[in-house]
């Protein structure tokens, strides 16, 4: 069809690297005899049949929501992938998130401009929360003649991308809308992991190490580290598993209570008696239901921004622990609270995330160039796939608790499960059957 | 059966985390309609039925071959996993590789002793090449009453583990023999990746960055970095993809030639003319067939040790490039050669590898405690499985070239494929059919 | 005198390395014609005449106050210096600060025990604030037969060391009391710098970098970083000079005001208009006089501990900035506040501090072995000296403002001096005279 | 005189920060009663009387010789210092070392262009060895109307700067020639230290750590690390002192011999017997006199470049050690040789060096603007001074051996001094007199 493009693509890809149009990836990989394979996803990769003529392509890239490591790498690889793999030379950067579509000028992006940006944290396109206005955005897309839209963002952003996709369809425009999952929380449904996750877990080690040193250097030292994760405790769980210095990991998926027998405070007391110090990692979304309105007045943190719905649970827990030991007078404790959030999310992506971002960006480009639209690109069982928006939006956020990993974590920290006695009994009953 | 064990296990694992005995992982994940699933591997995890009574278990751990990041983490987690998950208190360290079985005393390993070792590179058990003597080793196992043998090593080591496994069967001993794949080259068949690989790719960035800075700061500067990889170029390829500063990546799986049109030297000349500097990454096993005996006299490196069969291809390539430009007098070059091998393999594992090593060690322990033997533990499509030794030994070493990744790399470095003209033509022909 | 010691010392030090007993270091190094040299300090180093017989020495080490990088290195080098340079084999660790003298058992310290501790942050001896009880401490020293006391601590700790020194003199005991200056604030009088300072400045770069990335990635992004420094802004100033990304540095020695013309808020507004983002570094002791009681209720931080007198000025400033822009409605800002305190002070010392700590510890040992007492060891104009306690205690805390460096910083950040208009006029007048 | 400049300067510097024109720094700081102060050096800093009108200034910057950390920081701060402190807007970069003056176009340098370069290693101006042609260079300076020349380079470069300075004087040009000492070896006379040194010592720790891990993980493991230092062993010595893992440090200033009693090989054997492994650090200039022509054929290293006069002593030592143990058959050793040279010198400068580079560059600018010429700027006893070229050129290169530090190192590694027996006896005799 478009010979020039095809030749260019061919110079990059040997024939065997084309993805067959019926290549799919099975969601269900752990199988029993004759068990179903679950949903099959279209595998990402260069297609033999290219939909767009590269001379006609006008792509744009936008980053929305909070920072996470790897945004610049994805931007770089989208630009370079379009340029070098398909000869697309017109790529625009939308500045400052969704509202940049209608309130700002665009920035031309070339391989030269983006050449070194992957070595810096943040996003050269700036980002913001909110600002989504479907019709203004689609107006801008239409007015500027954009026919490929790459949207980097988390769960909310992907939802809003759907609105853009639907409005574009309604207007009958030939515009590919592609989502690239960006959330450090790693809670996007269907896909294995999102960008920046590995880097975040790595960098979290610094905070945990510091908490551990502070705790060890004091009498009854307690180090509390708050890590990202509102609905899911992936970072907290992986950082705990990687560190081996954590005594207690609290996540949103696994409810806990503070007071009384079997509660967190009792466990802290016991652990301090046993080893003289301890480290607690808490995900930001953990225990939100326990924070009373009266607690909140003490926690007027200045950087709430878009984070108003979430109270600083690390601060809350720290106060609760201090109060408890001040009241009980049983032991004097030394608690240090560390919130490394901004120091984690602002660093450049590490090597592993750089490779991941590269493949994701290239997959996104292949998908759009092949004429697919309304999909998010992401790894399913280790292979990048095109996932229709609705499967992301309708899916449940990924959580830790369904995962074998949580059991591994419990066996690693030797923390109790902080669940109610009834539940415990039920478990006990089950195990007696064996 | 063994109630004490079962109770201990139950306190660690909720019922739902037991692996069903018919849980398998399909090797074939990219599927077409009704396509076969390939080999199915038994999924690793805690079994409901435990074979060993923990009071009777006497486990031993041995590390063989060269260093790679993560050995100490695996040792730590084997010891802690046996102790905390199953109550096994008698774990012995075999010192200095296979020959330690018969020529050295064992070292008792406890959670306290191994508590912090994951923060250090190398192996606290020391390691060595060779020294395998099946009957002496099995004598030692028998004499010491050992009934679980954990062997960390690469392809060769896993082969030798099979000999131990078979001799043990021949003697009718009830001893679990478990292999844990350790090769920084990442070339072990069947499994997704081996321990230390992520860390190695990360650390390789330092060498590549330095080569890039040296190259950029000189006129016609060339930075050459040699990375590990004898049969496969995984580290070289991933490090190149992660860096984006590499202009040419040479690996064992993709033959190349130096002189003449389409050769590496011509490409170097062109790239220098275009951008004034360049970075070359070469895997240690690349181009071995091109090294003539006469070249070798120039490369008497002191640290050959067990590496006698491999000539320092980075040194060889550097000399060839220097000779070429000295001879042609077309341009004066400034070449800097960096061999970061020991600086990469001796560092502690990063967070991602720490999690990987933990899960691998726990899987190994679950497998042995369940009574499985003669298997290597490793991830298949992202899930840890028990892989019978023979599938590892008979499998072909993993290579890069079958992977889509190599195409991605070529499109990222824009290097030619350095293959012969015929091959090129053939490709061209095919693409015309589209 | 003590031949065995002398021989041991001789085997370590060539004759020329002895410090002459009348070697002194001049405090005044910038000199005019015939200007006085200021105080002369006795140079530290091995003396030809050793006071103690090493067989009789019973040394002890104690760490007091907050953490700073390098404590473990000093402990290690005191132990190794005493052992290897003088053959002293009996060194005790006092655990948990001053109160450890009378409320805890001592820990024997040997070269083997301390061999690797310099690679870890914190202090293996644990530390605490307060707990000083002169007579109980000297009782303990006397009862245990200790005759060398090495005290690591900051300004307060050195003051208390004087009390111990005087009580010991009053009792007529032959005990050397040696202070080793430990304060990350770097505010100890007379000496050039204290341990851990270089490491702290290095590590502070991470926080500043993150603040910079966050600020750059948002519209009107402001990154606020609080760094250590109660009476002096050394860390803030050096970290700012090292980074070059900081737009405004606020320190205790240089008063400022927020509102009105020439104030900090006006400057922030201007800088945001000019470049769209900015980074502010504030030392913890800056602007304390501006914090009103009504502000304090908002800042109930959990980790106040011994820090009760200081309010979190970073939090306060962040709230003030947010309030200002919320009120004025001129621009929407995005402020991120980072407090890296514990992540900085808990890391291991870097190479430069390791060398510094080694020389300091060796100097301390030489001084005590030569029979000196009642002194703090520290660098004066780059040479380690013995400084009598009273010169430290009576000296004024070191401050930044007398230093040329502050002028350099102002010329580097281009921030105004935030002083009152009168002062500005006066300056202008003077310069007209030139 | 030039009011505009003065006002600008005044806005930067409070009155008290001007350097008095008779401020000097005494070279001799360790003093005895009435001892002479040695040479007095003019203290660097802003002068009250500015020589150049900033509108007339045309400055240029050139980097010569090998890389070291901090070059880009100095370039940045020269440009920003001239611009912000004095309003000088015309600064040219000379590309590729001395030969760039006559064979290349110049590059305009502005604060915007250099804003982020301090975060990258190397030099954005590129560098080269040689190429010095006094009259061509001065022709170029004259033709381009340059009146301030900033030359970054080591001992040789500073010598050549003198030739330029003298030719300029001969021609009667009003051109300030300023040297900025750049040598990672730290061997420039008079000054305390040169840029990049701290960073180099820090980065060398990685190589030493790796050598230590490799040595510890093998039977009779020996790790050999070669570090920079041709005439002086500063990096080797400081890296050894910082690490505490080094058993033997060999430097140019302290001769040694391999074979026989008291030789290095005997020491290695002893240390291996004692502790089973060891780490050796060798400076590149150590033992050059021991390398026989016959050894050299084995050491044809590809990256000799300008380094032809120096043979790879690390490689040579490694071969000698391997030969020795292969011959003696007393023990099997495992030797790993690490040459981290390029990985050290190509990294960005750390915080401490960034501050140092900033002050040095600002001092250089103040000196030139005040009308001084023919000087090198550098720290003497911790204060930056203007040092006339001839005192640098006629001075002896700085060496380690006159320093107390070497004694400290010997007492830290417990290595013998490897000197001949006569010398030892002489020492013994002297110490008996005490």
UniProtKB/TrEMBL annotation, chains A, B, C, D:
Keywords: Allosteric enzyme, ATP-binding, Cytoplasm, Glycolysis, Kinase, Magnesium, Metal-binding, Nucleotide-binding, Transferase. The record marks 156 as: Important for substrate specificity. Pathway: Carbohydrate degradation; glycolysis; D-glyceraldehyde 3-phosphate and glycerone phosphate from D-glucose: step 3/4. Residues 59-366 form the Phosphofructokinase domain. Its cofactor is Mg(2+). Allosterically activated by AMP. The active site is at 185 (proton acceptor). It is found in: Cytoplasm. The keyword Membrane does not apply. Its EC number is 2.7.1.11. ATP binds at residue 66. It catalyses: beta-D-fructose 6-phosphate + ATP = beta-D-fructose 1,6-bisphosphate + ADP + H(+). GO terms for molecular function: 6-phosphofructokinase activity; ATP binding; metal ion binding. Catalyzes the phosphorylation of D-fructose 6-phosphate to fructose 1,6-bisphosphate by ATP, the first committing step of glycolysis. Homotetramer. This is ATP-dependent 6-phosphofructokinase. It comes from Vicia faba. The gene is PFK.
């Amino acid at each position: 069809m478009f010979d020039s493009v095809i030749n260019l693509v061919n110079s990059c890809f040997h024939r065997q690297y084309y993805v067959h149009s019926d290549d799919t990836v099975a969601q269900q990989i752990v199988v029993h005899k004759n068990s179903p394979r679950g949903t099959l996803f279209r595998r990402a990769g260069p297609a033999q049949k290219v939909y767009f003529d590269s001379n006609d392509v006008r792509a744009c890239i936008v980053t929305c929501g909070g920072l996470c490591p790897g945004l610049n790498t994805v931007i770089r690889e989208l630009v370079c992938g379009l340029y070098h793999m398909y000869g697309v030379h017109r790529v625009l950067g939308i500045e400052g998130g969704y509202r940049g579509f209608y309130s700002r000028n665009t920035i031309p992006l070339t391989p030269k401009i983006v050449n070194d940006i992957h070595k810096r944290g943040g996003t050269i396109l700036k980002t913001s929360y909110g600002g989504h206005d479907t019709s203004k955005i689609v107006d801008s897309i239409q007015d500027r003649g954009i026919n490929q839209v790459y949207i980097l963002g988390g769960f909310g952003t992907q939802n809003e991308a759907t609105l853009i996709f639907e409005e574009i369809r309604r207007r009958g425009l030939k515009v590919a809308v592609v989502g690239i999952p960006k959330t450090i929380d790693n809670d996007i449904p269907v896909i294995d992991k999102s960008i920046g996750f590995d880097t975040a877990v790595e960098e979290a080690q610094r905070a945990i190490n510091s908490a551990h040193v502070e705790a060890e250097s004091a009498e009854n030292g307690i180090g509390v580290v708050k890590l990202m994760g509102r609905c899911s405790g992936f970072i907290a769980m992986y950082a705990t598993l990687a560190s081996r210095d954590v005594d207690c990991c609290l996540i949103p998926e696994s409810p806990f209570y503070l007071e009384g027998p079997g509660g967190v405070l009792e466990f802290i007391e016991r652990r301090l008696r046993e080893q003289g110090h301890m480290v607690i990692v808490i995900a930001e979304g953990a225990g939100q239901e326990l924070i009373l309105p009266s607690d909140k007045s003490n926690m007027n943190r200045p950087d709430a921004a878009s984070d108003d719905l979430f109270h600083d649970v690390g601060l809350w827990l720290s106060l609760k622990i201090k109060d408890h030991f001040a009241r009980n007078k049983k032991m004097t404790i030394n608690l240090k609270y560390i919130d490394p959030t901004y120091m984690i999310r602002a660093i450049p992506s590490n090597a592993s995330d750089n490779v991941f971002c590269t493949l994701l960006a290239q997959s996104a480009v292949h998908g759009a160039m092949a004429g697919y639209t309304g999909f998010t690109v992401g790894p399913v069982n280790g292979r990048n796939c095109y996932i229709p928006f609705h499967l992301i939006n309708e899916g449940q956020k990924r959580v830790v608790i369904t995962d074998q990993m949580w059991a591994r974590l419990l066996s690693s920290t030797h923390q109790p499960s902080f669940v109610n006695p009834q539940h415990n009994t039920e478990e006990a009953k089950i195990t007696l059957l064996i």
